[in-house]
Design a protein that fits this description.
By secondary structure, the protein is of the alpha+beta class. It has a single domain, classed as Alpha-Beta Complex (Nucleoside Triphosphate Pyrophosphohydrolase). It contains nine helices and 19 strands. Strands 1, 4, 10, 11, 14, 17 and 18 form a seven-stranded mixed beta sheet that branches. Strands 3-2-19 form a three-stranded mixed beta sheet, with helices on one face.
């Protein structure tokens, strides 16, 4: 009897050991071959960039990027890059307003420090877009109507810099405009159309993006950053796949990004747009990654950081790269940044992410064949231009090397 018990126990132990071994091997293989995790080498990203056709744009139910080539081609930023295909010129779907790599001291002044004006939808647009907002709230009932600054003007100040102004708007108004540009709507006096067609009306032959003053869109200013870890000889980048429930670039590899929030009490702390957007980028970075700059402990943001969702404080270097307008979303203003930190262990990144709000927008595990979003690709090219100081080398961005 005892021999039978011992034999059964031995079999159970062997089975458990085999299961443990197979689970361990599966996790190793999964991590190596199937999942991208958080960290990507420059070589991996360079390969993805080389495979991108920048004139093949995003297309969803709400945003149809195929219009961009026809309507905005003349405004697209030209770039010279070198990759596995050799040297070539590309166009990215952004209108460049300021290049901080070439002119780092450019000043963008906020003309009015107190937000007193409200962004208003075009006549008849609210009724025409009610169904769009209702669809979003049905799919995502927890969506909140946050307050955001809408850029209403941007022009040279005559001194080598620029001056801009803002209105207050809301996330729901952005849903009705920039985030649903190509949804069919029935506008009084016009009939069935889209927000993009309304914005471009009369400018088809000019092939240009409507100015901020004439666009009629919410035009919330956004921020995004390529996060580079480690030294120049061994750079690593942080990218995660976006969830399918996000407003744009769903299921594509994404980076820390988001919309600027209205400042506290609707009052900007200084007249520098760059300073305001730096602070907003650092807030987004902390909220989406769980990692904050040491200086953020004392910093007053548009709304306070939830310190219970911060897993690590470290030195964060933030570098403005370019201020642009994104054509997919009808000229939405966007600041590209490069964020640099020391290398952070994978386990720490995972712990911080699990604490953060980034779990709402990103998956920490996804197949390695996830494509890179256009936004990431373009921000990455600017980051490479900064790291290589490409403007001193004929302006060619080399994505054939790390």
């Amino acid at each position: 009897m005892w021999n039978n018990i011992i034999e059964c126990a031995s079999i159970i132990v062997s089975i458990c050991s085999a299961i443990f071994f197979l689970c361990k091997k599966y996790k190793e293989l999964r991590k190596k071959y199937f999942y991208c995790g958080y960290i990507h080498s420059a070589e991996d990203i360079n390969k993805k960039i080389a495979d991108i056709d920048f004139l093949t744009f995003e297309k969803t139910d709400n945003l149809d990027g195929t219009w961009l080539r026809e309507w905005y081609l003349n405004d697209m930023r030209r770039m010279a890059i070198r990759d596995k295909n050799g040297k070539r010129e590309i166009r990215i779907p952004y209108l460049e307003l300021v290049n901080f790599i070439e002119k780092p001291d450019t000043k963008i002044t906020i003309s009015e420090l107190v937000l007193t004006r409200e962004f208003k939808l075009l006549p008849g647009m609210k009724k025409a877009t009610d169904y769009i907002e209702n669809e979003v709230l049905k799919k995502k009932p927890s969506t909140t109507d946050d307050c955001h600054p809408s850029m209403s003007s941007f022009e040279p100040d005559g001194k080598g810099g620029y001056i801009c102004s803002f209105e207050k708007t809301s996330y729901f108004k952005q849903i009705r405009t920039n985030l649903s540009l190509d949804r069919p709507i029935d506008m009084p006096g016009i009939g069935e159309t889209t927000m993009r067609k309304i914005g471009i009306k009369g400018k088809e032959s000019q092939h240009r993006l409507p100015s901020l003053e004439e666009s009629g869109l919410a035009n919330v200013v956004g921020v995004s950053a390529i996060w580079c870890m480690g030294n120049d000889a061994n750079r690593k980048y942080y990218l995660l796949p976006r969830k399918g429930s996000v407003g744009v670039y769903e299921k594509k590899l994404g980076m820390p990004s988001g919309d600027a929030d209205c400042p506290s009490h609707d009052e900007f702390q200084s007249d520098s747009l760059v300073d305001f957007l730096k602070a907003e980028m650092l807030r987004e970075f902390a909220e989406e990654t769980g990692i904050a700059d040491i200086g953020q402990k004392q910093y007053v943001y548009s709304h306070p950081l939830d310190i219970t969702k911060i897993g690590l404080y470290t030195n964060v270097e933030i570098i403005p790269l370019a201020f642009l307008r994104e054509m997919l979303r009808g000229g939405k203003p966007q600041m590209f940044f490069l964020i640099r930190t020391d290398e952070i262990p994978y386990e720490t990144l995972h712990r911080c992410f699990r604490l953060s709000q980034g779990r709402r927008e990103f998956n920490s595990r996804s197949f390695t064949d996830a494509t890179i979003s256009t936004e990431v690709a373009c921000n990455y090219l600017y980051a490479k231009a900064y790291l290589q100081q490409s403007h001193r080398n004929g302006g060619v961005i080399d994505v054939s090397r790390t």
